[in-house]
Amino acid sequence: MVTQGCARISVSLLDGKVEIEGSEEFVASHLVPLQGVISEIYHSTEKTQAGEIDGAAKLTHRDLASLEKFTALYDASEDGQIKLLTDLPGDSIAHKTVSAALLISYANSLLGTERTPLETIRKACKEHACHDTNNFAATIKREKALFVHSGTTYIKLSEAGRKTAQDLVEQLIGRQEATGLARAASH
């Protein structure tokens, strides 16, 4: 009896995983159809991610103005990304980083984009002088109750995160309204 060599194929596509193991003949018979499926999945994922990035880039001031009560907190920058107009609450860089992630992810969700690129949050943290190069990703990743992590480039608000973000937004709007009333009373 002649034994054929054992062969193995392992594919991840961000841990969707497909593993085939067996005789060389068996693995070879599955390789061609598998390559087609992998290519289809890869290109589909690539288009979805590009569409979400393009969708975020198309945000305009008018889109945010349609959510009138939020215009004191958000604007669309020249490159179409959400820009935070408020100081970030928090007594540490990590706390401010989480606040930025909550606020930006919440604005994206209001505009119909559930996944928020970490690069967008990183940019906001840099603009608000609370970017910790060495701990940024770990700070976001640590907040498992607030965010659902999609690979290493996106986050999505969990239900608890959405509630926390909504509470934070309401608190900030209330604070700005109170400040505006105090200014009006002093004039």
What secondary-structure arrangement, pairings included, does this model have?
Blueprint: E1 6-11, E2 18-23, H1 24-57, H2 61-65, E3 74-76, E4 82-84, H3 93-110, E5 115-117, H4 118-127, H5 136-142, E6 147-150, E7 154-157, H6 159-186
Antiparallel strand pairs: 1-2, 3-4, 5-7, 6-7
Helix pairs in contact: 3-4, 3-6
Task: Outline the structure in words.
- This protein is α+β, with helices and mostly antiparallel strands and 187 residues long.
- It has two domains: 6-55; 60-186, Arc Repressor Mutant, subunit A (Orthogonal Bundle).
- The chain is 55% helix and 16% strand.
- The protein contains six helices and seven strands; from the N terminus they run ββααββαβααββα.
- The protein has a three-stranded antiparallel beta sheet with strand order 5-7-6. A two-stranded antiparallel ribbon has the order 1-2. A two-stranded antiparallel ribbon has the order 3-4.
- Helix 3 (93-110) crosses helix 4 (118-127) and helix 3 crosses helix 6.
- The radius of gyration is 23 Å and the shape is elongated.
Write a compact overview of the structure shown.
By secondary structure, the chain is α+β, with helices and mostly antiparallel strands. The protein contains six helices and seven strands, in the order ββααββαβααββα.
| Biggest sheet record | 3 strands, antiparallel
Briefly note the structural class of the backbone: alpha+beta
What share of residues are in beta strands?
Answer: 15-25%
CATH architecture of the largest domain: Orthogonal Bundle
Number of domain units: 2
Number of strands: 7
Which quaternary structure do these chains form? single chain
Radius of gyration: 23 Å
CATH class of the largest domain: Mainly Alpha
**What's the N-to-C terminus distance?**
99 Å
Strand order, sheet with most strands: 5-7-6
Give the helix proportion (percent range): 40-55%
Under CATH, the topology of the largest domain is which?
Arc Repressor Mutant, subunit A
Question: What is the average per-residue confidence, as pLDDT, rounded to a whole number?
Answer: 76
